[in-house]
Amino acid sequence: MQAIVWNNGVVSFLDQTLLPHEERTCDTADYRVVAEAISSLRIRGAPAIGIAAAYGAALSILSPHVSDVAGALKELEESAGILAATRPTAVNLFHALDRIRRAAAGAAGGSLNALRERVVAEALSIHQEDIASCLSIARRGAALLPAECAVLTHCNAGALATGGMGTALGVIVEGYRQGKVRKVFADETRPLLQGARLTAWELRRAGIPVALLTDSSAGSLLASGAVQAVIVGADRIARNGDVANKVGTYPLAVLARRHSVPFYVAAPLSTIDRTARSGSEIPIEERNPLEVLELAGKRIAPEGVDVYAPAFDVTPNELVTAIVTEEGVYRPPFSELGTPVAGGE
Amino acid sequence: MQAIVWNNGVVSFLDQTLLPHEERTCDTADYRVVAEAISSLRIRGAPAIGIAAAYGAALSILSPHVSDVAGALKELEESAGILAATRPTAVNLFHALDRIRRAAAGAAGGSLNALRERVVAEALSIHQEDIASCLSIARRGAALLPAECAVLTHCNAGALATGGMGTALGVIVEGYRQGKVRKVFADETRPLLQGARLTAWELRRAGIPVALLTDSSAGSLLASGAVQAVIVGADRIARNGDVANKVGTYPLAVLARRHSVPFYVAAPLSTIDRTARSGSEIPIEERNPLEVLELAGKRIAPEGVDVYAPAFDVTPNELVTAIVTEEGVYRPPFSELGTPVAGGE
């Protein structure tokens, strides 16, 4: 299963808002459709957002109304701006668009065709690198797991969230293949239920036993001793190892620490923001209050109530047992995260 | 607004499963309807369950087919057994039924009419005492709050959950009246959304500003410093001060401690189970997995997933700043909870 596919000038993506009820693939050659899909969470997950944005930018300069290099560069600036404005927290989005812009600038002295080929090649590279990163993260992460373990995850950091086999869920799937993981507990992940809708769906497709729980049931689950590791993805990681991820991650980290359960973050190096010294410098997206006030299109709260709806929270580095990347496993105090690494930016 | 009313042999209750969309009052003279209403959470909240069970037991001996004292006592045993089997965690249920049984036993030497009057009077007393308890708890709890505070609560421990003005929500409403509480944050409280549906509804009716949040957003909310007190109710409190309450309470207590926010439990003495030495002796109800797998009647997860669905969790005494009862405020190590108190049982 692939969340996003580039097919000769057309981007095909699975509309994740319809899962698990319907598996509908959308095909588009219009970058605005890609931008809307990111905004509306049809495409979601930090690495997948980066890949989709790169493909979207590539689509924009393949448009028939682009007739020369200057027009392509202008179009690229516009499309990159629109794609960058879709979601503020996942840094992979900005990293991918920067790579596309640099690739275009490097090819600006040649023909329009050469420029187009260079940009498409860069977008495909971003995707291919993510596939390889996922595999490496999965293997490095699985090596950390004990035998016969049950793991807890939050939101969806699986194949749907990446170009490859997933980050946190990649570790879990690889751990299952190795016979180490015997059961997965998945937080449903309110408000948009990515755990119930997407993680449970991916795990069932893979034949891996999964138990769903409401997010706040994780407290008694961890207290019961039934879980040996918590593994999550990340939307942005600061230089000091503070991790921004789906809201609800921070409470899990606090509970994991209290019950001496290791708390792992699995993410490609493209998730690291070396301009952010700590989590306090990471912008946290506030989503539409209706995502909390409504469920399945039905109002659940009375009129007149206010809403507190951050999409992400920040887990301080001291609660993170390790950050698993494609290049290696980083542990506190995470001083290596501050230095540039090949493939990181 | 009264969740339950006794009206001359008829119990009237608000069907809480329909809130906030519909305010439907059900009238019944059949204790089986009351028992079903408790099982299905039409009537909910530990003190309200106790009151409803007492009224239900009283209804059973008012039935026209009860013709003598022996028949009444037999009917009472049967109805009390059915009412006691509705929900396992809230101890108020068992305390109330014990009082009704003792009242009946005390009047067994007289006429059927005298027995009926005695049992109805006992049920009315249980209700009246709860009204008084709520008021006392509200005043004692409000005294603990700082000026100009925002408070966070979980589930619904309001008028809907009691015979009076509520426990945790009673404290909050009284704190608002005194000008101390300026804002309330309400966890939506998955899976059955008592926070979104009931607490937000009660607070809006009272004109108190309320912001709704998904349960796992409480982590970043507490980390932000926006909350000065967490106040919750309880379904059962062990002798050592361990508190069983709606699942999700324990994570809140852990987070409150981490951020040095006081964590208050507001509950009548009837919530204390003096036979339970610690929280590990409190039975925790598992609810129907469909409550997690479905939302508003719509399936949210794929087929084939398991569910972990405890209705309650246990907060260890060390995380509880104080337990506010009608008789006084108890603080760790809660040694007074082990001794019988007037009105407690």
3D architecture notes:
Two copies of one chain form a homodimer. In chain A, 38% of the residues lie in helices and 17% in strands. Chain A contains ten helices and 17 strands. The first copy, chain A, has a seven-stranded mixed beta sheet. Chain A has a four-stranded mixed beta sheet with strand order 11-8-9-15, covered by helices on one side. The longest helix of chain A has 31 residues, at 112-142. The model of chain A has no long low-confidence stretch (mean pLDDT 96). The interface between A and B is large, with 57 and 57 residues. Strand 14 of chain A pairs parallel with strand 6 (210-213) of chain B.
List the helices and strands and how they pair.
2 copies of one chain form a homodimer.
Chain A: E1 4-6, E2 11-14, E3 25-28, H1 31-39, H2 46-62, H3 69-84, H4 92-106, H5 112-142, E4 149-153, H6 168-177, E5 181-187, H7 194-205, E6 210-213, H8 218-223, E7 229-232, E8 236-238, E9 243-246, H9 249-258, E10 263-266, E11 272-273, H10 290-293, E12 294-295, E13 298-299, E14 306-307, E15 312-315, E16 322-324, E17 329-330
Parallel strand pairs in A: 4-5, 4-7, 5-6, 7-10, 8-11, 10-16
Antiparallel strand pairs in A: 1-2, 2-3, 8-9, 9-15, 12-13, 16-17
Helix pairs in contact in A: 1-2, 2-3, 2-4, 2-5, 3-4, 4-5, 5-6
